[in-house]
Amino acid sequence: MTSVTVPPPPAPYLPQRGERYRLVAPNAPTAPRIVRDFVATVLRVAGHPGLVDDARLCVSEVVSNAYRHTESPQVRVEVTVNRRQVTVYVTDDDPGRLPARTPGAETDADVGADTGAAEGGRGLLLVEGLAARWGTTAYGARSPLSKTVWFTLSASGG
Fold first, then answer.
1. What is the four-CA torsion angle of 68, 121, 63, 134, rounded to 10 degrees?
2. Residue-wise over 6-33: b if at least 16 C-beta within 10 A, else e?
3. Mean pLDDT, rounded, for 3-25
4. CB 129: neighbour CB atoms within 10 A?
């Protein structure tokens, strides 16, 4: 049996205060839908129903990217909610190249009909267009062990 060191929870470039919710899902074709529904439920219950649609689209893109482009056995999702904003972090254990938006690139979310991501969309361009901020963080210094893609949605519209 192999021992795996789990990196610390993802942290944004600015400290976020608020309630934190976490989910660990297998990195499988069903992960985008499961994570999308989890995030939507958190936002509705936390009083941010106006952010649900944007959050669902963004998290579908990010989780679908992890499924399509990594060999990570699981994805870890953390949602931090406060009255002004919501930040969603998606972490996988295959740091490889950090994702970056590519103008004109097709979405990586078209994994199958079950992903719920926008068909024919433009991957991280969609996240960039909807989020107030987004970014990536690698963990493990010179030899990264994992990466996080995060995005923040603002209750005030950006």
1. 120
2. ebeebbbeeebeeeebebebebeeebbb
3. 66
4. 15
Amino acid, single-letter form, for residue 27 = N
What lies within 8 Å, CB to CB, of 64 at 6+ separation is 32, 107, 108, 109, 110, 111, 115, 117
SS3 42: helix
Q: What are phi and psi of 46, to 5 degrees?
A: -85, 0
Interhelix angle for 31-45 vs 52-69, to 10°? Answer: 150
Q: Tokens 């493990």 appear where?
A: 140
**pLDDT tens digits for range 27-81:** 999 999 999 999 999 999 999 999 999 999 999 999 999 999 899 999 999 999 9
The pTM is what?
0.77
Please state the rounded mean pLDDT for residues 11-16.
Answer: 52
